[in-house]
Amino acid sequence: MTTTWIAAHRAAVINPHEDFALFPVRSFTGQTVRQAIRPAGGGEALRVRLSNRYGTTPLKIGGAHLAQRTRGSGIDPTTDTTLLFDGTPTVTVPPGEDTVSDPVTRTVTAGEELVISLYLPGHTGPSTYSAVPYDIGYTVHGNQLDAEVLHDAEELPTGHFLTGIDVRAPEGTRIAVGFGDSWIEGMATTPGTGHSLPARLDRRLTRGWIVNQGISGNRLLTDEIGDHLLARVQRDVLDVPGVSHVLVHIGLNDLGLPGAIAFPEPGKLPTADDLITGLTALADRLHTAGLTVIGSTIGPYAGTVYPGYDTEEGQAVRLRVNEWLSGDDHPFDAIADLAAAVADPDHPDRIREEYNSGDGLHVNDAGTKALADAVDLTLLDL
């Protein structure tokens, strides 16, 4: 059987040097960082992707290990494997660059919990990071790559340097990419449970799988938080090995962040035409690459607790864009009506109570199930 490399896990990353930060920025000095992942698909080997994309100094990795997770920061020591980079156990990643480990030949099973441990001997500077990792990570001082448990470890609510794994899967395996904002990434879902929209949707698939390239706070047209969606297309979709389909949710932060950042002064919002033009450009670029593109309506957020986010102007733009997406003139192959899936029937501009995470902007674990159930699986012909 002929095999090829296919993405099995992804984590889109943020520049820690942005002017506006929603999440804490971290650096590390002489520490071990241990992070868990759950591959969406399996294969006969894997390789690990690390990034210093937004670093301003070389990232020295004094060692990297792979193991199966037990619980918390614990690993099964019988599965502990040293990762190599061009045959050596250490690597220095230049600023602005990524690196990929040498292949590790082992059976990878979809859904198993793996742990990547990195020893960072020098000062890393502010790390290239992801807002919502699969689960809480851990860090301790010193080289504890092979420690069975990291005692007295500090918990890390954000992910660092780890951008994904690929697996050796049968040639012809096709996957989808969830691409967009917090409704893709899984903000406000329970860490370690696989309750993001892509993970929920993945469990419904009978063939192929879906990886998550959401960034909470991300926008279609404007940088911060993360490079804007149109700027991320090549790296976070087109360069993902095996991608054939894309599920997009974007627009909430284009409408809400300007007001929230400028509060109490009014912020300048994009017009409906601005968003329609941007969404059309996104669909056209993905179609040019031969991908199937599923758009989605912009989710409800009226009454959110974040000051300045919910404005009359923003709600009017959302309504017009959703009307366009629900009509016949949009450029997508299909539309998933995610807004309707979780909206309060009596107040459709609000999230219904049983799906509300508590902030009026994000859905909870039950809400992501409703979102996943709203996606017609015949659209994901993987």
TrEMBL record:
Sorted UniProt keywords: Hydrolase
Key word Hydrolase present: yes
Top-level taxon: Bacteria
Keyword hit for Hydrolase: yes
Domain SGNH hydrolase-type esterase: 179-369
GO molecular function, a single term: hydrolase activity
Name by which UniProt lists this protein: SGNH/GDSL hydrolase family protein
